Amino acid sequence: MTLTAAGSWLLVVCTLLVDAGRGGNSWHASWRRHASSKPAVLQHAEARCRNHLTMQPELVDSRPQLAAAGQLIDPTKEVRAAVILPGDWRKYDLSLGKVMPVLQLAESAVHSRGLLPGHRFRFIASDDRCEAVYAQYRSVEAYAKDKVHVFFGPSCEYSVAPVARMVKFWGTPLLTTGAMTFDFSRNKTDCEGEYHLLVRVGLLSFRDMALFLIALLDEYKWTKVMLLYDKDGCEHISGKHTCKLMMGSLLEFMDRDKFTVRYYNFENISKDAIQEDLRREIGYQFSIYKSILTNLTNLKKKITTKKEEEEEEEEEEMVWK
């Protein structure tokens, strides 16, 4: 987790708060254009969101209110942010132990830029274990008990999905550097969008990676694709099934009439059997991979031969001595 990524969370929040205070609600103007003939729960959600953005006193409870000049009016002058991330810093790149100190540095950077002068952030840390059920529990607790103004995280794919669906009805934005699956990058300007109040501030998404790979295939006119992946590969980045979700995003944007696609999952395959399985699965239809595999095999043989020669030379030197 970099200072830039953590700082961007805070800077985006500050920008939204200041912009809302100045009446800059144009990015949510679609709410106002909706007809009233909607289910009661959706009407309630839209009303809460509208009033949250305009900071109507009757709906914000003890939350800070914004004056017309864009200044916060609150006795405590406190912005409460729920930080919902895994607690295991050894297993996950985005964890509480790594992110919390960086958020404190980012807060100092916000103050040094003169944003929200006189106000402070209170970061409420919660461990979601990179599990959807704990992420939901922690988010409900943070909203109901701590009355947070914004959520930082979750970042794991399966954790962020249910929380992002709920914050739409709470009128509370969720910012994350995760949520890389293509579903999270769909258009969210319509209030009926599933992840309407989810804001991705990461530098990369699976959609961007997929579009890049497809552009690369088009450039060299490659039409036969073999997807080789470990379902839980790169779990430290986005939790369970990170690689599987990446492959799903790639397939979502691939033209099936244009590309011939096959799959190979490394799950439950021993390392010794992978090479032979790849020869059988890939075959000559995907000869570029066959060529790479052959070259790697030859390279391995050369390294092994060289190592054996060096060991023989060392043995000869010892005998000579």
UniProtKB/TrEMBL annotation:
SUPFAM superfamilies: Periplasmic binding protein-like I (SSF53822). Residues 99-280 form the Receptor ligand binding region domain. It is found in: Membrane. It comes from the Eukaryota. The keyword Transmembrane applies. The keyword Membrane applies. GO terms for biological process: signal transduction. Keywords: Membrane, Signal, Transmembrane, Transmembrane helix. Residues 1-20 form the signal peptide. GO terms for molecular function: peptide hormone binding; signaling receptor activity. GO terms for cellular component: membrane. This is Receptor ligand binding region domain-containing protein.
